[in-house]
């Protein structure tokens, strides 16, 4: 079985690293979160009575 030259391993590492970076950037910027509305911003607060 022939061995690969170190420059070939380096080029494979660079190619896969670039593919990984591009894939992560595309996934990060393709996600669009929903903007919070004023109706969902209201938080109901109930008083807490601590009985120690």
TrEMBL record:
**Top-level taxon in the UniProt lineage:** Eukaryota
Q: Which GO molecular function annotations are given, in alphabetical order? A: proton transmembrane transporter activity
Q: Where are the transmembrane segments?
A: 6-31
Concerning InterPro entries, the annotation shows: ATP8_metazoa
Listed GO biological process terms: proton motive force-driven ATP synthesis
GO terms under cellular component: mitochondrial membrane; proton-transporting ATP synthase complex
Subcellular location per UniProt equals: Mitochondrion membrane
Question: Region entry Disordered: which residue ranges?
Answer: 33-52
Transmembrane helix: present as a keyword of the record? yes
Which keywords accompany this UniProt record? CF(0), Hydrogen ion transport, Ion transport, Membrane, Mitochondrion, Transmembrane, Transmembrane helix, Transport
What membrane topology term does the record carry?
Answer: Single-pass membrane protein
| Keyword Transmembrane helix appears in the UniProt entry | yes
Record text on subunit structure and interactions: F-type ATPases have 2 components, CF(1) - the catalytic core - and CF(0) - the membrane proton channel.
Q: Which family does it belong to?
A: Belongs to the ATPase protein 8 family.
How is this protein named in the record? ATP synthase complex subunit 8
Question: Native species of this protein?
Answer: Sweltsa longistyla
Upper taxonomic lineage: Eukaryota, Metazoa, Ecdysozoa, Arthropoda, Hexapoda
Q: Which gene encodes it?
A: ATP8
